[in-house]
Design goal:
The chain is mostly helical and 108 residues long. It has a domain of 71 residues.
């Protein structure tokens, strides 16, 4: 029972993080998504302000869900399993960062 739960958590938690705006160094949602929508949909300043509030709220809710899920998973797993899961998540994040870096154009 624990192995399927561990695999599920290891697969789902990192993937759900990509569905939401990423964070900059200050822990705030970045506005890349908003800028993209603004250009594609020709948003008014009022619409941009309202969407920014929605994205910020969405980001805060996601963080709360993530923290709650992490705490609940920690209650189920042994310390060794939790350590391994943290290592797996770290490796996944590093690979994701490498892919993001490879997708960005060369900067001067």
């Amino acid at each position: 029972m624990i192995k399927p739960l561990l695999m599920l958590a290891a697969l789902i938690l990192p993937l759900t993080a990509t569905a939401y705006p990423s964070e900059n160094d200050y822990g705030q949602p970045t506005d890349h998504k908003l800028e993209h929508l603004s250009k594609m949909l020709q948003l008014t300043p009022e619409q941009k302000t309202k969407l920014e509030a929605i994205f910020t709220e969405q980001h805060a809710k996601f963080r709360a869900i993530h923290e709650e899920s992490h705490a609940r998973i920690k209650e189920v797993l042994t310390p060794e399993q939790m350590q391994k899961m943290d290592e797996m998540r770290k490796e996944h994040m590093e690979k994701r960062q490498e892919k993001r870096g490879a997708l960005k154009p060369n900067q001067p």
